[in-house]
Amino acid sequence: MHARLKLLAPLAALALVSPPSLSFGQDLQTLSKDAKQWVMPGRDYAGTRFSPLDQIKPENVGQLQVAWTFSVGKNRGQESATLVVDNTLYVVAPYPNKVFALDATTGDLKWTYVPDTERAAQGVACCDVVNRGPAYDNGRLFVATLDNHVVALDAKTGKEIWNAKVGDINRGETITMAPLAVKGKVIVGDSGGELGVRGKLVAVDQGTGKVVWTAFSTGPDKDVLIGPDFKPHYDWLKGKDLGVSTWPPDKWSIGGGTIWGWITYDPELNQIYYGTGNPGPWNSNQRPGDNLWTSTIFARDADTGQAKWAYQANPHDLWDHDEINENVLVDLPINGQTRKVLIHPGRNGYMYVIDRQTGEVISADAYDTVNAYLGVDLKTGRPKPNEQMQPALGKTIENVCPASPGVKDWQPTAWSPRTNLLYVPHQHLCMNFKTAEVGYIAGTPYVGATVDMYAGPGGYRGEFMAWDPVKKTKVWSIKENFPVWSGALVTAGDVAFYGTMDRMFKAVDAKSGQQLWQFRTSSGIIGQPMSFQGADGRQYVAILSGVGGWPGVVANAEVDPRVRNAALGFAGATQDLGTYTEGGSTLFVFALPQAQAQGGKPASPAPQ
Description:
Blueprint: H1 11-16, H2 28-31, E1 50-51, E2 65-71, E3 83-85, E4 88-92, E5 99-103, E6 109-113, H3 121-124, E7 135-137, E8 140-144, E9 149-154, E10 160-165, E11 180-182, E12 185-189, E13 200-205, E14 211-216, H4 221-224, H5 242-245, E15 264-266, E16 271-275, E17 296-301, E18 307-312, E19 328-334, E20 337-345, E21 350-355, E22 361-366, E23 373-376, E24 383-385, E25 396-400, E26 414-416, E27 421-427, E28 429-435, E29 449-455, E30 462-468, E31 473-480, E32 489-491, E33 495-499, E34 504-509, E35 515-520, E36 530-533, E37 539-545, H6 549-556, H7 570-573, E38 586-591, H8 594-597
Parallel strand pairs: 1-32
Antiparallel strand pairs: 2-38, 3-4, 4-5, 5-6, 7-8, 8-9, 9-10, 11-12, 12-13, 13-14, 15-16, 16-17, 17-18, 19-20, 20-21, 21-22, 23-24, 25-28, 26-27, 27-30, 28-29, 30-31, 32-33, 33-34, 34-35, 36-37, 37-38
């Protein structure tokens, strides 16, 4: 077998005789409505990252204390979501992707799973050896490893049930994204757009590990799973084999469009939604055409994978503006009518509100500094290019905003049905960009651009903000020194949480943005906060601390911060990060003191 199982005795033996899971066999959608649990990375299929728990409120959040901690043992970028099912917390470490199951209330370790992940996968991982979390369904935990394996584990014991290989590191493919479990399938995409990898989304049978369907991002319609049910809203997206004809001959086969962000699901429409990555190479002069279906949002039938509609946010992408960011599914009042929409905080700097049934762009408004484009034409859906910033071979284009990571990268937002606001962690960066010819060699960098990033106007590099998608405006914002690379969490107690790269975990009032509490962790934070209720009745909040990812390699890897264009240009933007933090590997779990959680007399304020 590809993987090796290592159980911790005697805890493993006890797990074998423990009572059966209360949730085994329950529908995952129903289970996600249990406020006590957090059963998928986005908490629910809509990807809201909203916890219905309200024990922690603005008036008592200042009493939060560390309940327990745990080290995952690998000081690289900690981006994993943590899941909680039946008072068991599950977390995945960066390469080699060890999996840990812990008692969610006490922190006691129940079992550990150690996959035999190929060491060579580290060499083809573009931007740190991160993992964004596991998936859960029907008593099983599903984990995607860096070397392209999807593994099913018994959630109670950690025993491996099956192991499926869905990619090849020799072609530069890796997996960093969190899978999504939908209707008996595990759905996962690939990474490696900077190595000429051809993007694909794969659905694997939960019972057997066999591939059910594969949807490529580029190529002929039969590969992209475009058939008679495909009805895009805009005429320019209609036509046969556009995944071939919008590329130079054969370039689509090494054209990127990888899928390493988030998948959401509408059970009523039975459709999944996700975005594809940038075209390859970054040097746009080598790939004339719209380069479909890269930088595209897809709606697909969850059973067959057949495309329902698609919308390309960045035709002929010039700047590495992947659109892998999340698509949060909500119903909004638009011009007096409630519409089923998705909210997509675009990497290109526009906050999209899109009809999730048709693919029509309802609104697209800039939510940070944008000069790489001049807006979005709502009649055609196409962005308006800034002709003064067209890359030319050997020419440095200066002051391009946003920079290649976009206004927001993978770090997920949170939506509150109480405030009807989207809480957005993001960066505030611009760049100088110079293209050069590059050749393709399988499994090696295929970029063709030199990038130097720096703080945007105002001198700050990150922001946490609340956005009103109906009024199309920013409600409040908090400027941060570094890019805000952590995810967001919002709760029914009207408290929002996020972390910073200079080691702070923060709680703010979801209505006003007022800072209520902060705690300095052991390393910079780029993880995903979540909340659950323990067996003791207390509400807990958890976050992984450990700087890394694309912006953090200057603090956790052997990268000289004086080389501004290192790490695909991000080193320039975070040269000073090493003076604030080093790498880390610690899971922090917070709760109110027991008396305070039970409604007792407020304790003295906790130290900040």
